[in-house]
């Protein structure tokens, strides 16, 4: 073997050893400074509420501050892209949701890969969407809504919080499974959509529990079904879509935490343990339960499988619906 080849092999091995030792040392000392939890949506929304609640508890447990940073825009793509390109050391994390598995089908030019550019930490929470109708609409369940849509003179209008949102795609999935025709009316957020739904400008829509429940309680909207797999304990009288004639139907507003790809495995394990520990804290559990949010807290490999399955599910829905954002 030539001398320069021996040197090349030696130095290559030395560099690999240094890299490995650096990763081990980093994991052993992690965390020794503040961690940034990027929420790719505006402050005050469901993701932001969950993120701040858990960040506070994790901060208390690890003795280092976890700072929530809102990087909103482009349906979550701005924040996701930022984290994907961040240093993989565990100090920059992404709190993401359904957009992470739908955007890859909705946007033609993503600057990141939702699987390859991230290391899953844990699926944290989930909450159902409620299928709500204008209170004057003569339907009290899914069967009656389907019959009403089929006999209407023209496609009934449904609202969503925007093109490509989970509420939009949930309705497209419902349309695909039932064969009914409806006209999509996208809004810039949940609040204006609900305002027009109450006013009768649109007649039906999917919306998250947090924002829809006050109007349901005030009899301004009627909830006819839940998108969860099972009835929620806080809403026992609202049947699921699955039990209303569409078995297997399940759509939820989930929140999970990701790190940049190649983040050391020991760091991922520690973060997974810390987030799950925060979820199990009684004050956190009670607060989330009051908001009809279900707790998960699974392992990184389980979250990875969930992401792949969800991407495949929504790719089919987007293809059939023709939905596109850019």
Topology overview:
Layout: H1 3-29, E1 35-39, H2 46-62, E2 66-70, H3 77-84, E3 92-96, H4 99-106, E4 118-134, H5 142-151, E5 156-160, H6 166-178, E6 182-186, H7 190-199, E7 204-208, H8 209-217, E8 221-226, E9 252-260, H9 265-279, H10 282-290, E10 294-295, H11 300-321
Parallel strand pairs: 1-2, 1-3, 5-6, 5-7
Antiparallel strand pairs: 3-9, 4-7, 4-8, 4-9, 4-10
Helix pairs in contact: 2-9, 4-11, 6-11
- Structural category: alpha/beta
CATH 2nd-level architecture of the largest domain: 3-Layer(aba) Sandwich
| Share of helix, binned | 40-55%
Using only C-alpha atoms, the radius of gyration works out to 22 Å
This entry's quaternary arrangement is single chain
The total of beta strands comes to 10
Report mean pLDDT, rounded to a whole number.
Answer: 89
**CATH class designation of the largest domain:** Alpha Beta
Cα distance spanning the termini: 56 Å
Shape: globular
Keywords, please?
globular; ten-stranded mixed β-sheet; alpha/beta; D-Maltodextrin-Binding Protein, domain 2; 11 helices; 326 residues
General description of the model:
By secondary structure, the chain is α/β, with parallel strands linked by helices. It has two domains: 27-127 and 254-321, 3-Layer(aba) Sandwich (D-Maltodextrin-Binding Protein, domain 2), CATH 3.40.190; 128-244, D-Maltodextrin-Binding Protein, domain 2 (3-Layer(aba) Sandwich), CATH 3.40.190.10. The protein has eleven helices and ten strands. It has helices at residues 3-29, 46-62, 77-84, 99-106, 142-151, 166-178, 190-199, 209-217, 265-279, 282-290, 300-321; strands at 35-39, 66-70, 92-96, 118-134, 156-160, 182-186, 204-208, 221-226, 252-260, 294-295. Helix 6 (166-178) links the parallel strand 5 (156-160) and strand 6. It is globular, with a radius of gyration of 22 Å.
């Amino acid at each position: 073997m030539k001398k320069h080849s021996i040197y090349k092999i030696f130095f290559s091995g030395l560099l690999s050893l240094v890299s490995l030792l650096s990763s081990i040392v980093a994991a052993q000392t992690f965390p020794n400074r503040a961690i940034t939890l990027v929420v790719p949506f505006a402050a005050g929304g469901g993701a932001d509420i969950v993120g701040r609640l858990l960040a506070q508890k994790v901060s208390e447990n690890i003795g280092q501050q976890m700072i929530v940073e809102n990087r909103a825009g482009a349906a979550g793509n701005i924040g996701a892209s930022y984290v994907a390109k961040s240093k993989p050391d565990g100090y920059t994390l992404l709190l993401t949701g359904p957009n992470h598995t739908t955007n890859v089908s909705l946007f033609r030019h993503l600057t990141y890969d939702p699987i390859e550019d991230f290391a899953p930490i844990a699926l944290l929470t989930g909450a159902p969407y409620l299928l709500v109708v204008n209170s004057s609409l003569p339907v009290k369940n899914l069967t009656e809504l389907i019959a009403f849509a089929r006999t209407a003179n023209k496609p009934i209008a449904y609202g969503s919080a925007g093109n490509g949102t989970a509420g939009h795609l949930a309705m497209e999935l419902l349309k695909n499974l039932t064969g009914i025709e409806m006209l999509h009316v996208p809004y810039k957020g949940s609040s204006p959509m609900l305002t027009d739904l109450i006013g009768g400008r649109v007649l039906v829509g999917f919306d998250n529990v947090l924002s829809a429940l006050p109007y349901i309680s005030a009899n301004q909207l009627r909830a006819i079904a839940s998108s969860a797999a099972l009835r929620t304990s806080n809403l026992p009288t609202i049947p699921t879509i699955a039990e209303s004639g569409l078995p297997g139907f399940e759509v939820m507003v989930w929140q999970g935490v990701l790190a940049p790809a190649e983040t050391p495995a020991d760091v991922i394990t520690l973060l997974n343990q810390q987030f799950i520990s925060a979820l199990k804290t009684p004050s956190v559990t009670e607060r989330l339960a009051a908001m009809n949010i279900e707790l998960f807290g699974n392992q990184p490999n389980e979250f990875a499988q969930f992401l792949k399955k969800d991407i495949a599910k929504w790719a089919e829905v987007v293809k059939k619906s023709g939905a596109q954002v850019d």
